[in-house]
Amino acid sequence: MSARSAHLLAGLLASAGVTHFAAPKPYDALVPEFLPGRPRTWTQVSGAAEIALAAALVVPATRRPAALLAAGLFVAVFPANVKMAYDWRHRRPALKAAAYGRLPVQIPLVLWALRVASDAAADRA
């Protein structure tokens, strides 16, 4: 079951990473202004990180560090979700609900990645 969970997390990250390149404009809009450089650079870097983490999650030898880094990535992108909620505060109720709904979703994502890391450590013991 632990490998399946890691593969599912890898699929989520790979899918998200690919969309950063296939449709980058929505991600560009989420980059907080306090970050230096161009938003597109941050979109591409975060997309590449998601793809790299996805690849590392499917390899048992790199699963634990990849899962820990994925947990850190989920925490690191939280300011983008806050920015989206703020920017979308005057949109239609359904869109506003989606933006606000993303905020608490980070918690189970972080916990999921930490669980994959824990399972990977147990599998290697």
UniProtKB/TrEMBL annotation:
Question: Record keywords: Transmembrane helix included?
Answer: yes
Q: Which domain of life is it from?
A: Bacteria
Transmembrane stretches, start-end: 66-86
The protein's UniProt keywords, in alphabetical order, are: Membrane, Transmembrane, Transmembrane helix
Q: Which organism is it from?
A: Actinacidiphila paucisporea
Q: Which named protein is this? A: Uncharacterized membrane protein
